[in-house]
Design goal:
There is one protein chain. 46% of the residues lie in helices and 14% in strands. With 260 residues, it is α/β, with parallel strands linked by helices. It has a seven-stranded parallel sheet with strand order 3-2-1-4-5-6-7, sandwiched between helices. Helix 5 runs parallel beside helix 6.
Length: 260
């Protein structure tokens, strides 16, 4: 299927690895000019070079900036002043418990996983409206719908982003601008390697057993592949997805038990 977005321009946040990189790769494969982002310039340069080698016809640029700061977001919008596609993303807070969630921790979670996304939307939305095309995809978490105690910080900040995105989506739909959320669960990325290492330490098992135990919690009995999420992102950014907005698409191997 031709997704109808060749020649469009995208900014993908926190995309030097993991889920952000998967989205950038899928978009670049569709002929979208992609700007990737992270804080480590050397890592970004290597990632951009690898993508260009993999996809010789792709346009891949990068901007090294901390999107959690106003200075970083200014650098991002200077490097990519107009985009048709915005994919927001950032690493989540560390697992913890109520004893860890003081005011600083709560505000820090919002600053990492809610505020940057909203501010980038504010920056790019006027141009999308004017041009009559925009696709915004937030990478959040399956735990927005199925909260786990130890991931309470991540869940709460991403739920806040989900709520404000729904509100915005209703106002911009008539201008062919959509806002949707991807809710991943156990996608095989560096973040899951962190969780594997955590389980190894907590349960005294080796890496293979830790991965097997994690996979056993998923209905599909395996971790998701990054490209599965990346391709889902690309479809939500497509011309064909213009009638899909304000939605939460779960990529969880069929694990969610609810209806909505």
């Amino acid at each position: 299927m031709d997704l109808g977005i060749r020649g469009r321009r995208a900014f993908v946040a926190a995309s030097s690895q993991g889920l952000g990189l998967a989205c950038a790769r899928s978009l670049a494969r569709e002929g979208v000019a992609v700007v990737i982002n992270g804080r480590d310039e050397a890592k970004l340069a290597a990632t951009a070079s690898a993508l260009r080698a993999e996809l010789p016809d792709a346009s891949v640029e990068y901007v090294a900036a901390d999107l959690t700061t106003s200075e970083g977001r200014t650098a991002i919008t200077a490097a990519a002043p107009e985009v048709d596609i915005l994919v927001t993303n950032n690493a989540g807070p560390r697992p913890g418990g109520i004893e860890d969630w003081d005011e600083e921790a709560l505000v820090g979670a919002l600053r990492a996983n809610m505020v940057p996304a909203v501010q980038l939307v504010r920056a790019y939305l006027p141009g999308m409206r004017t041009r009559g095309f925009g696709r915004i995809v937030n990478i959040t978490s399956a735990m927005v719908k199925s909260p786990a105690y130890d991931m309470g910080l991540s869940t709460s900040a991403r739920a806040a982003l989900t709520a404000i995105s729904k509100a915005i989506s209703k106002d911009v739909a008539a201008r062919n601008v959509t806002i949707n959320n991807l809710l991943p669960e156990r996608i095989d990325t560096p973040r899951q390697e962190f969780m594997v290492q955590r389980r190894m330490a907590q349960e005294g098992v080796d890496r293979d057993e830790a991965r097997a135990r994690i996979a056993s919690t998923i209905a599909a009995r395996r971790m998701g592949r990054p490209e599965e999420l990346g391709d889902a992102c690309a479809f939500l950014c497509s011309a064909q997805a213009g009638y899909i907005s304000g939605q939460n698409l779960q990529l969880d191997g069929g694990s969610y038990e609810g209806l909505t």
